[in-house]
From TrEMBL:
Family listed: Belongs to the MscL family.
PROSITE patterns: MSCL
Full protein name: Large-conductance mechanosensitive channel
Function: Channel that opens in response to stretch forces in the membrane lipid bilayer. May participate in the regulation of osmotic pressure changes within the cell.
Species this protein is from: Thalassovita aquimarina
Lipid biosynthesis is among the record's keywords: no
Keywords for this protein: Cell inner membrane, Cell membrane, Ion channel, Ion transport, Membrane, Transmembrane, Transmembrane helix, Transport
Mode of membrane association: Multi-pass membrane protein
Gene transcribed to yield this protein: mscL
Coiled-coil intervals, chain numbering: none
Subunit structure and binding partners: Homopentamer.
TM stretches of this protein: 79-103
Keyword Ion transport: yes
Amino acid sequence: MIKEFKEFIARGNVMDMAVGIIIGAAFTAIVKSVVADLINPIIGLFTGGVDFTNNYAVLSGDVAEGASLEAARETGASVFAYGSFLMAVINFLIIAIVVFMLIRSVNKVKDAAMAKEEEAPAEEAPTGPSELDILVEIRDALKKA
């Protein structure tokens, strides 16, 4: 069983998957930082710093007027946190746009590199006599001899 496990781990596709997951996690951190540290503050300038996270409706329980969502949850009240969901949707859309733009720019660079490779003609190998030509020469040489 251990031998099979070692063979499984040593396969290329498992290692590729592991590298992909690690790179994906690092990329996720970068994208989250871009959204939280760069894009959201700019959007906040245009919206006046509006944050919907603390918008909720109390379904049951007693919550002090104007309490934050976290404070409402700490009291044990049942809350419908529509603002938190709305912010998650907005952040998802921003992340999707950022990832789209990054992938699009990477694809443009990749396509440009592929176009350059296609434009550069491959050097043609010098053509020599064909096999038939060589056989004809041998035949003629044998006839003369």
